[in-house]
Amino acid sequence: MPWIKFVHIAALVCWCGALLYLPALLMASVRQRTDGGFDHDAPPMPRFLFNSAATPAALLAIASGTLLFLVHGLAGGWLVLKLAAVVGMVLCHALCGWLILRVEQQRPAGVWTLSALIAALASGLMIAVIFLVLAKPFA
Asked: Which residues cross the membrane (predicted)?
């Protein structure tokens, strides 16, 4: 069943890339709104990326990871920590969605700072997942 692992890794790469790009896109859209002299609508790109790429990739990564767990019977302390890091990534994903709504509702206060924090937290969680999967401590 190597195809399950391939699907899982491909979906993770897409989700992690989107999870890093969404905060940068939000920061840019807030900066564009404050720099512009005209009142204009929120850019549609953050919502499109969130709905069309990030969320489906996240769901596919979680579903294929669950399938890997069930098929291969993986277990160990490292897996519990990895799942905790994935829960953190899901929370970062949800926070990005909330920030997209704030930008669309023209309430950009704090979006830039929260986006930077989400990017830093998501990066740390991704590094933790990679370490836990490759090193498998507490096995």
From this structure: 6-27, 48-71, 77-101, 113-135
CB 6 within 8 A of CB 61: no
Range of the domain at 23: 2-135
Number of independent structural domains in the chain: 1
Question: Cα separation of 34 and 103, whole Å?
Answer: 11
CA 37/CA 13 separation, integer angstroms: 38
Q: Which two tokens stand for residue 120?
A: 């830093």
Q: Which is higher by pLDDT, 113 or 44? A: 113
Query: Which residues are CB-neighbours of 32 under 8 A, at least 6 positions away?
Result: 43
Query: Is the whole-model pTM more than 0.85?
Result: yes
For residues 20-29, give the mean pLDDT: 94
* Alpha carbon of residue 137 to chain centroid: 24
Nearest to 92 by CA among 29, 12, 14, 20: 20
Angle between helix axes 55-72 and 77-104 (nearest 10 degrees) is 170
- Of the candidates 49, 77, 57, 68, the one whose C-alpha atom is nearest the C-alpha of residue 10 is 57
Q: Judge residue 12's burial from the number of C-beta atoms within 10 Å of its C-beta, 0-12 exposed, 13-18 middle, 19 or more buried.
A: buried
